[in-house]
Amino acid sequence: MKKRFKILAGLALAGAMAFSMAACGGSDEAATTDEGAAEGSVLNIWCWNDEFQSRFNDYYPEVAEVAEDKSTTTLNDGTVVKWTINPNENNNYQDKLDEALLTQADADADSKIDIFLVEADYALKYVNADATMSVTDLGLTDEDLADQYQYTKDIVTDSDGVLKGTTWQATPGLFAYRRSIAKDVLGTDDPEEVQAALADWDKFNDVAAQAHDKGYKMLSGYDDSFRVFSNNVSAPYVEDGKTINIDPAVMDWVAQTKDYTDKGYNNKTSLWDDAWNKDQGPSGDVFGFFYSTWGINFTLAGNSLETPEAEGGKMEEGNGIFGDYAVCQGPASWYWGGTWICGATGTDNPTLVADVMRKLTCDKDIMKQITVDTQDYTNNQAAMQELADDPDFGSAFLGGQNHIALFAEAAPNIDMSNAGPYDQGINEGMQTAFKDYFDGKVDEAKAKANFETAIKEKYPELETINWPE
User: Fold this and answer.
1) Per residue of the chain (469 residues), what is the pLDDT tens digit?
2) pTM as predicted
3) Residue 348 near residue 113 (C-beta atoms within 8 A)
4) Rounded alpha-carbon distances, angstroms, from residue 453 to 87, 238, 255, 450
């Protein structure tokens, strides 16, 4: 893991060299755009799954053909889009991206990275390196970006105030609850009344006790509420480049999760494992799940299917508990996830990169259509407000509820001011280290020590870890 930070140290030099090289000329096989600039014949896009690939292939207006194996996409002008997908697990995507960016200056034109995707938890690592281009330099204007949510711009703005990426998503989080369980526990499944019962953590914990008395679990496992706490920290984990300060809010998650585990308020599952997935289906006994925009219409909808062979999460009648979920804000504002498009320094396709950003993150009609088709929440305030105000719009999966209206209320409250480049590693490290504590295998002091050992191996430049008193 130490190698990744040695690589990062070289990104600024590699990026500067690549930018200089790109300025001197592009591919010998480059086409000429309407603006007269040389553009390459291959657009290389790096990502960790096929989500953006699907959005690109389905909604970018210039797509002419998609290869049967989806490895390439051909555009109307003949440009070939090559997809490089490396899974995220164990930092695999970042490690391979870092290695590739170090060779960007020396790569031939058709091999240069043109676009790469980043997540919120590590966006600043790349945004504050020369490996990413200013979207203004690419050609996007303030008018293009005017309807995007401010937090989605803040997270890809470097320390000098330069915007270095864009996204088609906004990802506020909500609490998705089972209507049938809410009726049994609270006597109502009405979102406003359920929200009143869950409006803060004290109330949420009271409902957890009531649910337990009725034979239900409030949450599925250890990680479910983590991001609701970690998104509400009072300061970044690392402010001086060498010290980690664990926020009291994160330790509140530890205390709550230990309490829920000891009292039987959860099923001791972990995010993404089979038991956690099953808890969201027809046989589940869990009151609800914290999910952001993508989670509801993709993961939760998919996990609610009676059989894995069913329609892959599509919101269609036939889901095992189709219509039995609803959403409310829950005890705090929070967000989870999001994917940002960055233009790689050294790209020989700057005009095309800008057009992809403009069409797939700034175009109101395209943003609205994505939401209508997929129920995902997109990064255009005007488009989302139109759907929020539409009395005929709603999610059949959520019993007809207009979840976009709730997301539209939540999105402006997202605060990214305490995000930092170490968030992914520290968040994952906390969740991993404290599972043995929740299970009673180690005490809290040992869990802290295990976290410190793991995090100092991952980030050797961070010398001190401070815990709240």
Assistant:
1) 333 333 344 444 344 333 333 333 333 334 444 444 679 999 999 999 999 999 999 999 999 999 999 999 999 999 999 999 999 888 899 999 999 999 999 999 999 999 999 998 899 999 999 999 999 999 999 999 999 999 999 999 999 999 999 999 999 999 999 999 999 999 999 999 999 999 999 999 999 999 999 999 999 999 999 999 999 999 999 999 999 999 999 999 999 999 999 999 999 999 999 999 999 999 999 999 999 998 998 899 888 886 544 444 455 555 678 899 999 999 999 999 899 999 999 999 999 999 999 999 999 999 999 999 998 999 999 999 999 999 999 998 999 999 999 999 999 988 888 988 899 899 999 999 999 999 999 999 999 999 999 999 999 999 999 999 8
2) 0.85
3) no
4) 25, 17, 21, 5
**CA neighbor of 462 nearest in space, from 453, 136, 200, 103:** 453
Q: Containing H/E element for 19?
A: helix 11-24
The C-alpha atoms of residue 353 and residue 115 are separated, in whole angstroms, by 7
Q: Which of 202, 205, 183, 206 is nearest to 194 (CA)?
A: 183
Tokens of 358: 């403009």
Strands 288-292, 173-178: parallel, antiparallel or unpaired by DSSP?
antiparallel
Q: Please report, as a single letter, which amino acid is at residue 306.
A: E
3-class DSSP assignment, residue 155: coil
Q: In 3-state terms, what secondary structure has residue 242?
A: coil
Distance CA 233, CA 375 (A): 29
* Lookup result for tokens 């409006």: 199
Domains of the chain: 2-170+337-379 (3.40.190.10), 173-336+389-413 (3.40.190.10)
- Extract the tokens encoding 159: 């320390």
Q: Pull the structure tokens for residue 32.
A: 């000429």
Torsion from C-alpha of 65, 66, 71, 77, nearest 10 degrees: 20
Q: 347 φ, ψ to 5°? A: -60, 145
Spatial separation of the C-alpha atoms in residues 327 and 109, rounded to whole Å:
48
3-state secondary structure 221-250: ECCCCHHHHHCCCCCCCECCCCEEECCHHH
Rounded CA separation 334/331 (Å): 10
Q: How far is CA 363 from the centre of its chain?
A: 21
Name the percent of the chain in helix, strand, coil, to the closest 5. 45, 15, 40
